């Protein structure tokens, strides 16, 4: 009875310490929730859209394939994304190491003068002596409450997010190279039209000069015709400037610096159309690397919350050591210098002035941010994809109307040429009819370039051939 009585206060104290250590985290919860794909307008029965990871090869241009390969190999921004992935993977190794026993060795040698009035009696008191310790230490924090596992899961999720980010950067880079290449092709086609416009206006000016000399026109018509020639040359020079800028952009994207990477100037007629979705894909969220990355960040933030809650519970360690210790280095390795110890260690957070709850509130806020960032990324993806689908369909209709208008303009031009040949019209009528043809050709070039650019943007918006593994796909689709 006396034995139990003496130990009862110790048990009550231990229980009190345990309850104090396990401080409450009640009332701290995330307030954000995921918005369902259906609520955002993605139909569950829509057809899936699939494309290859090298989708740009659909356009059938070997030079474009080579440029994108160079960009994916040497672009600094893509290398930065890969470095971030490597760093995230290293963090997972650090988190994994915390779940395993830690072993370290130590060797200490000390020369010390001992106080004559200190703890040690003579002959040690007042003397100067050497002491040494050679020891192996083992520390293993038992993960009873899942703190280390949560930290590891968070690091793994962050690594998955970094991997998806690297894939998103790859897709964006390939799309930017393709768009710049198509822009250069548009400029080249517009240059051909501009050169013909300049030649046509020079011919028109010569005819007006002849008519003025013959007394059929006045100086007013001559000055008007002369003014159109510098305008045509200015438009030609502006297009040549744009061509240089487009080539510089491609050189920067492909990490070529000041070297011009274009060996053969592209034209729009050399490209094949690429397959694109006609409606929002049902699996859009799983096909987007940025959506997958955002979802993995939510997973990481959720595990950080679990880790923060585990901080409220005690830390339980198994500590052991074994080694040699002696007063006098000459006896360090002698029999009798052995020492060892083993036992548990418990650390309880009794009073932390609200630090643990503040930390949990911060991690919960991070979770809310991650969830809302995911929702925003989904909204942006749906908006972007829907816009590109609408543009693609509209451009197709515009091209149909433009082809009809160009056919009519070319028909009028043919009639003007025939009338001129039989003496029923002047060459000025021919040049005027050709002006309409050239205007339609410029519009046709712009629409063809927009169609290609929209195809690239739509492929990228619909995932760009991103292929997540099974776990990533399930995470993105939640």
Automatic annotation (TrEMBL):
Location of the protein in the cell: Cell membrane; Membrane
GO cellular component, one term: plasma membrane
The keyword Nucleotidyltransferase appears for this protein: no
Matching InterPro entries: MdtP/NodT-like, OMP_efflux
UniProt cross-references to Pfam families, sorted A to Z: OEP
Alphabetized UniProt keyword annotations: Coiled coil, Lipoprotein, Membrane, Palmitate, Signal, Transmembrane, Transmembrane beta strand
A GO molecular-function annotation: efflux transmembrane transporter activity
Signal peptide feature range: 1-25
Entry membrane topology: Lipid-anchor
Domain of life: Bacteria
Residue ranges of coiled coil: 222-256
PROSITE patterns: PROKAR_LIPOPROTEIN (PS51257)
Keyword Mitochondrion: no
Family annotation (NCBIfam families): outer_NodT
Family: Belongs to the outer membrane factor (OMF) (TC 1.B.17) family.
Record's protein name: Efflux transporter outer membrane subunit
Species for this entry: Caenimonas koreensis DSM 17982
